[in-house]
Amino acid sequence: MGMTLSFLLFLTLLSPIFTFSSHVSDPEVIVQEVNQKINASRRNLGYLSCGTGNPIDDCWRCDPNWEKNRQRLADCAIGFGKQAIGGKDGKIYIVTDTSDDPVNPKPGTLRYGAIQDEPLWIIFSRDMVIKLKEELMLNSFKTIDGRGASVHIAGGPCITIQYVTNIIIHGLNIHDCKQGGNAYVRDSPQHYGWRTLSDGDGVSIFGGSHVWVDHCSLSNCRDGLIDAIRGSTAITISNNYMTHHNKVMLLGHSDTFTRDKNMQVTIAFNHFGEGLVQRMPRCRHGYFHVVNNDYTHWEMYAIGGSASPTINSQGNRFLAPNDVFNKEVTKHEDAAESEWKNWNWRSEGDLMLNGAFFTRSGAGASSSYAKASSLSARPFTLVNSITMNAGALGCKKGKKC
């Protein structure tokens, strides 16, 4: 009994550390304390995980029966998009047909499942390449889960998440995406409409919320690999492998579109690799947590922005190019120094290699960073193990993924 009372007293003493209140003068101090506690706890519990230090992967990849427990993945998201449940608790829908009809899709095709009104967990019967004729317009509460097959969305328009919510995209190869539009496209069983020209993004998030893009391999699209604009928020982009592209990721529609001040995006555990030029990401207005990513290539810059975004860079590894004129990680766009020096951009615990440097600006410690803190950063020394399996995984039935 004495030990139980002592333990309860210990928890009571700890509890104020985890209490968030509007009366806290500096929320960032509380965030730092919580992060320290979480890191200490994870170190102590490391023997319970698969040992990667990647909290998303350690949540589900240890299970050799992952195929029978596919929807467990929905419980593993972290960051600002952690509430994205996709098609959790919905039926399993199996893609068996690679054909595509933008207006009257057949049962068994990817588009038929994507537009349904009910929650669905979409999987694939075999390896396949799907060349869409027009943008794939997702309806709310959908998961596209490529585990167990090699699935390529390539050679045509790709994925659009427009004014919908609760989307998970996992385990796809998305590449060589083209412009679509000036055509009719169905977005629900009841409705199809005229689509103007699209940008040719790999994943376009337009006014979407609660979106999680995880373990995808993306490259060589017409515009962005992943873009989020027009009031999109509550997004996590994690464990992706990105290569061979110019404008990688745009987050925020324009400097004048102030609704994007509510945007919150987590960019975590991604590998930014060969042939990338810029925008990893390029941010506007909102709050962006860039944490534990591995940047091995850029030609112009890695992280940039305009319109006073808050960027919280923590525990990343930045390897600068050999070009002496492009060592800088950051780029403050479309503003004089007298303006951008007030933007809150912070680098904390980042590893700078080959002359890389991060130009900080704004407040060194500010409550704005609390709004841009979405998970506990791990030390940069763990970036290699955390990101080594970035991209689409070669999961096999009956084995750990």
Helical content (DSSP H or I, runs of 4+): 10-25%
Strand content: 25-35%
Largest sheet: 10 strands, parallel
Overall mean confidence score, pLDDT:
89
Strand arrangement, major sheet: 1-2-5-8-13-16-20-24-27-30
Low-confidence stretches: 1-34, 40-49
Work out the radius of gyration.
Answer: 21 Å
> What's the number of helices?
7
Termini separation comes to 44 Å
Shape field: globular
Number of strands: 31
Structural class: alpha/beta
Key phrases:
alpha/beta, 9-stranded parallel beta sheet, 7 helices
Give a description of the structure:
The protein is of the alpha/beta class. The chain has helices at 2-14, 27-44, 55-60, 110-114, 337-340, 367-371, 383-387, and strands at residues 91-95, 120-124, 128-130, 136-137, 142-145, 151-154, 159-162, 165-170, 173-175, 183-188, 191-195, 203-206, 209-214, 217-219, 226-229, 233-238, 241-243, 245-247, 249-251, 264-268, 271-272, 276-278, 282-284, 287-291, 294-295, 303-306, 310-314, 317-319, 330-332, 345-348, 351-353. Strand 10 and strand 11 (191-195) form a beta hairpin. The radius of gyration is 21 Å and the shape is globular. It starts with a helix and ends in a 14-residue tail after the last helix.
